[in-house]
Amino acid sequence: MCLGIPGRISEIHDENGVAMGTVDFGGVRRSVCLAYVADQVTPGDYAIIHVGFAIAKVSEDEAKRTYALLEEMSQLDELEWLDEVARANEADRAPAERAR
Amino acid sequence: MKYLSEYRDARIAKALARRVRAAATRRWVMMEVCGGQTHTIVRQGIDELVGDAVEMIHGPGCPVCVTPLEQIDRAVALAARPDVIFTSFGDMLRVPGSECDLQQVRARGGTVRVVYSPLDAVELAQRHPDKQVVFFAVGFETTAPANAMAVWRAHQLGVRNFSMLVSHVTVPPAMLALLAAPDNRVQAFLAAGHVCTVMGWEEYEPIAQKYHVPIVVTGFEPVDILEGMLLAVQQLEKGEGRVENQYVRSVKREGNVAARNLVRQVFRLTDRQWRGIGEIPASGLAIREEYADFDAELRFGLQDIRATEPDTCRAGDVLRGKIKPNECAMFGTVCTPMHPLGAPMVSTEGACAAYYTAGRFRKHAAAEESP
Question: What is the pTM of this model?
Fold first, then answer.
């Protein structure tokens, strides 16, 4: 549960005073909270992301190596939740969009 | 080893395992307190690789596994309410409560949603102002900053229909409790890399000093774990007992200060029940009074829901290192990942599930004799 998955920060913005950003996990993009690494990262940097929060900056080499290893050891559970969340959110929004 | 050829660092791993074996003049007993490490150790057969040099005890390192039965029952009670959208990380859904698990509540019509980030739950509350959105906040120190931010954020944005059922636990008090037990066998610890990425290792220094045990902050990859073992064995052989950092690429002594600060702002220490172990003083986090509006236990008056753990599950003996998972009479027969009796069989990071998936079944003759 405490593993965290390395991803690439593609964009950083401010949301009501909290640093947020988009992170790319091997092709899957997701909004992530960057508050805990805000003073260390710029777009293009890599970080370890745990349950939607960056907890530490890592080098690109390290990030890519770790990601490949996690994939090999089938320890990408968090990304599966991410899929499930995306599907549920879509289902949530669909009726509202149909109503429009 | 079965899976060792699968990962690229296999050669380095084998060389490290040889060094561990060469360094040890006797068999040392070590404990990892990290479900990720447990998963790696069992799946990659790292404990078998080091032979007789090290016996690994898989400690209470899986937050899902140590969440007390009573908190699961409270989660189940909340999820069954028609006015509640209950949100949780994916791995809590199949943890058995006294009557049923969250997945069964969902099948019976309760609204249970998996979230990736606790901020998803806050957002969900904003989208459903007519519902109460409750998030099941479990985890170690690694997850606490995320959950603290969700409370802080809900407070900041005035999201009144959001609250949290908190069952957070912290690692150092559990280590202390294990070391203080009269029948303790643990001679060294591998400390969890990402817990220390957040918290640093200052808290471990007095523990290492008091009990004179090596505590090596270790990553979760096979090579990390073998390096951590080697550092611990070297200390043990020299009669040392100090904190050492193997996971330098992620962990600093002070940890992540911004994250620690928000955790301290939102949470306070509390006594907490650990499933299979019992109550450990000051081992949990609870929401501070300033943020009490977001405490689901207070909002829904859940304090009266109490539960007693059944004695058929020997999770406590596994977590304390008294038995290996496959020495439990229920293992692989009555208790399987599809029908788990206790939490360590549910989560992929639980010791029992790790043994089951890696095909480590009962050594029948030997196990029949043990109580």
Answer: 0.91
Distances B132 to B19, B150, B159, B315 between C-alpha atoms, Å: 56, 15, 10, 34
- In the block, residue with structure tokens 């998955």: A5
Helices (H), ranges, B80-186: 102-107, 118-127, 144-157, 171-180
Count A/B contacts: CB-CB distance under 8 Å. Answer: 127
Which residues numbered 42-71 in B keep a CB inside 8 Å of some CB on A? 43-44, 62-64
CA distance B11 to B3: 13
Cα gap B287→A51, rounded to integer Å? 19
Å from B259 to nearest chain A CA?
A: 6
Answer yes or no: are the C-beta atoms of B4 and B13 closer than 8 Å. Answer: yes
Q: What pLDDT digit, counting tens, does each position of B61-98 carry?
A: 999 889 999 999 999 999 999 999 999 998 899 898 99
ipTM of the prediction: 0.90
pLDDT at A93: 66
Alpha helices for chain B (secondary structure H): 10-23, 35-43, 46-49, 63-66, 69-79, 102-107, 118-127, 144-157, 171-180, 193-199, 204-211, 222-238, 257-266, 296-299, 315-319, 351-357, 364-369
For residue range B231-257, list pLDDT tens digits in order: 999 999 999 999 999 999 899 999 999
Q: Which residue has the tokens 């523990």?
A: B207
C-alpha–C-alpha distance, residues B147 and A23, integer Å: 19
Task: Specify the residue for token string 């998972």.
Answer: B325
Residue B103 to residue B280: CA distance in whole angstroms = 29
Q: Concatenated DSSP letters for B192-207?
A: EHHHHHHH-STTHHHH
The answer to whether B207 and B172 are in contact (CB under 8 A) is yes
**Helix or strand (DSSP H, E) at A99:** helix A77-99
Choose the mutation target among A51, A92, A97 for the interface with B, i.e. most B CBs under 10 Å. A51
